[in-house]
Specification:
single chain, Immunoglobulin-like, five-stranded antiparallel beta sheet, three-stranded mixed beta sheet, 5 helices, 10 strands, transmembrane, membrane, signal
Length: about 210
């Protein structure tokens, strides 16, 4: 029996190795083509606009931009476990742990990370808290605000006294006018510590003088 020489043996082994590589590649392609993908659906509900908001899985491995009504879809998610986050500069949203099944298409499970509560699909998400706004919105000019200003009130009262008080003084009886002037003088003395002290000393001297005379 004739046995193949060394060159023929080498060629046979090379052909077998090439055939094995082709079979393995075809099996890998078939496995990849048959891998089950799932879509993740949800809706964001917020009173604030959703401009610039993104929904991401594992920090950006998959992402979606919500529509105007807040709905979003993350397409063709491979089986595995993911962390769903809402990237928003205006609000803080809950994070969701997402499990995508490798056995059945569309079989998903979601849990809120902060309380371990299951979440149905489509995912109904609402912000946990709105982030604080550090810039106060400037209001327009308001007459009521200006009239309630203490400086404006003081100026108005002063102007009223300057206009009305002289007319009242002109129409008063001379005796009433004299009494008012005396009251004003007494009030001025009470507000002036030096004059008040001087008045008390004068009263004390008058009392001593009366005692001596008696």
């Amino acid at each position: 029996t004739n046995t193949p020489g060394p060159p023929l043996l080498v060629e046979t082994r090379a052909a077998m190795a090439l055939l094995a590589f082709i079979v393995a590649s075809l099996a890998l392609v078939a496995s990849a083509s048959s891998e089950i993908m799932s879509d993740v659906n949800g809706r964001l509900s917020s009173d604030l606009p959703l401009d610039g908001v993104r929904v991401v899985l594992n920090g950006g491995a998959y992402s979606a931009i919500p529509r105007q009504d807040g709905s979003f879809v993350i397409h063709s998610v491979r089986p595995g476990t993911y962390l769903l986050e809402v990237q928003d500069v205006q609000s803080i949203w809950p994070m969701v742990r997402l499990d995508v099944s490798a056995k059945a298409a569309g079989k998903l499970r979601a849990l809120l990370t902060h309380n371990r509560q299951p979440v149905p699909f489509p995912l109904p998400l609402e912000p946990l808290v709105a982030k604080p706004v550090f810039f106060e919105k400037r209001e327009g000019f308001q007459w009521s605000a200006m009239l309630m200003n203490p400086m404006v009130i003081v100026m108005g009262v002063t102007l009223l006294i300057m206009v009305v008080f002289p007319k009242m003084m002109a129409n008063m009886d001379p005796e009433q006018l004299k009494e008012m002037q005396e009251m004003q003088g007494g009030l001025a003395d009470m507000l002036n510590p030096d004059k008040l002290k001087e008045k008390q000393q004068q009263q004390l001297k008058d009392k001593r003088k009366e005692k001596r005379e008696s």
